[in-house]
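question for whoever is on the cluster today: can someone run the full assembly for these? two chains, 659 residues total. i dont have access anymore since they changed the login thing
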Amino acid sequence: MTSSNDNNPPARSAIKKPRALEPGDKVALLSPASRPKSLVEVARARALVEQMGFVAVTGEHALATHGYLAGSDDDRLADLNAAIADSSVRAIIFLTGGYGSLRLLEKIDYRALAADPKIVLGGDETTCILLAMRKLAGLVTFYGANLDRVRSPGAIAELESVLTSGAVLPPVQGNHDVTASRFCFAPVAGKKITGEITGGNLSALCSLMGTRYQVETDDCIVALTDRNERYDILDRWFSNLYVSGRMERFAGIACGEFENCGPRDSRNLLSLEDMFADRLERLSLPSCFNLPFGEGPGCRILPIGVRASFDAGAGRIEFAEPALSKN
Amino acid sequence: MSHEIASQQVIKPPVIGRGDTVGIVAPSSPIFEEGDVEFTFEWLERLGLRWKVGKNTFKRWSDLAGTDEERLSDFHAMWADPEVKLILPIRGGNGSVRLLPHLDFELIRNNPKVLIGYSDITGLLIPIHQKTGLVTMHGPTAGSFFESEYTYENFVRLLTRTDPGGEVPDPEQKDDWNPDYPPYRMVIAPGRGSGRLTGGCLTLIRQLMGTAWEIETRGRLLFIEDVGEEPHSIDRMITQLELAGKLRDIAGLIVGECVSCRPGNSKRNVLSLNQSVEAMLREKFEGARYPVIYGMRIGHSADKCTLPLGVMASLAADDEMVVLKLEESATS
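^ ran it for u. tokens below:
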């Protein structure tokens, strides 16, 4: 076996941290999956990034259309690999999700990315890219909302602080404030554990199962969220992870926000939490529901590939190291 | 990791005849209106079959027909019961995959019988076929084998005869002035191929990825279909199979009708920009090294032919015609 084999995940020591952004840094805004709803979305995203003091560079094909995709695979890939190759680009942020990232994974230039680590941030279906980059380039990446969903003052402040902070990020803390029930957390099982943060969007995570991009989850704190999905479908993907036998080797499961998920037109369906809980309890896996991360307003951004401790009983993820390096 | 089941390892279940007993179970979701099952009994009677109903069939836990333990114990009981010759799940839904870590494959291997179903039942058909060598049947469930003449005749022909299945017929076009779309056999890529059949509902094939029961496709004629998935969602599942190398060494690909998979039909994950399943398939598979056809009535189509997993079949597709032929019998 040669050490240059792309199939081998980099050892923990090979983790690559991009550097924190500084005023004037270039930020590439790309559509690796579906097309943003309109050119106004792109203008708004540009303004958002410019207001933070960065220089926005929009991908050439960010507004292209090809069926449900923002341009052909070659076009979307050209934008992504151009941003990776451009040493003046210090961050790549995705404009929207939808579908299409999966089609790019085979041809992303992971080698160039490992040689010049930069911030990559997205969510929804573009989570596939984040997880593949963590695995094949050893890069710390960022799971949150794509830019079209970064709208609330809180979400904008969170984005700016994550992009610019070379310090350890503040803990993700579930609360017990009964007047703010959206993030009132519920512990399921377990003790305080430590591990690397991975996961993100559950559907995206499961899209990688059985492929060479399948996420390394052993001894990890696996974060799970999703949005706009039916509970029974989410039960399917949770079952996929469970019966794969890998779940018992997770260090823990931290569930975030499942925004706009529900039973839809099912006639008899327990909540997602009820359906997950029986198996989490069976495994005695440190786990809790409803931590404030995911893709909705007020959600924290998670650094994928960073070590942390997870106290399910206290609803708290405490990062053990900075996600970005200082200049 | 994946290996071809050698022909001598394929086990065919005994043929079904008058007087045989059917075991009705609910390994996935329950039927909501319990009286519905009465229609099934009438049709079984017409076929000269007796039936037994699993004791937990009408239990409920969330959208499942009872807890995993309850559904599994009914399922095992039918395999263990020497009177039962045909296991007929009441419907699909959700939940079959949850049973797999606890499924007694040894019991099944030692008591070969017909298992038939589609949709969520795919989560049992593929694992059981792969782990035991048993030919399992992708066809109707208890609630649907009498739904159309085409479905009924295909079901009866495959299960009650031991001669080779032969050419799979098309349903009759109901209205020549208003033909169904997609047509029953649309050629996406011409060619010829033969191999043992495998496949089922795409969502279930996806759900098995990365598990010990992941679909083995090498040398196989693969069929896939789904219901209520948008074109981009079908694309996503096919792309996952591609990335996993599952479409590299197949003998051919049969994509079913895929009911309610046109843009906006799914009621979930609808995108504002779109393209058809057909356009997506053409982009992906035009020029494929194996034949690819689209439109066959399987799985969720009201007209559905029964396709046996593990049986040798051949597919020939060109401008003139498309022939799918079952080269062997499905039962012994």
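summary bc i know u wont read the tokens: The mean pLDDT of chain B is 94. The CA atoms of residues 170 and 235 of chain B lie 26 Å apart.
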